[in-house]
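Posting this for the archive.
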Amino acid sequence: MSHDQHAERPPRAYEEFCAEFPALREAWDSIRRAEADGPLDPRTRRLVKLAASISARAQGGTHSATRKALAAGASEEEILQVVALCASLIGMPETVAAWSWVRDVLGPRSAQGQKAP
């Protein structure tokens, strides 16, 4: 599956949750629109959100943030650098866990330590 395919549609659980709680979906959509205000471009915003997900130790959030960063134009190298930058803040065991979550999305090439073209 290509990186672009990962970002096409939200997970089914998210869609079902939003159908069950439409007011929360509306509030979330409002927050998302407000996030775009400011000087950061979409790619940078996605990398910041990746770092926040990693720091929160959120596996699902890290998967999602990785897919969305790729869709916004971030390279695999940039994504992996974000993971590495988190090490001094969250420690090595947590960073290695986050690295494995990012690899879940990036695939086996990053798992073997190979650089993306």
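Residues 1-6 have pLDDT under 50 and may be disordered. Helices lie at 3-6, 12-20, 22-35, 42-55, 59-71, 76-90, 92-106, 108-111.
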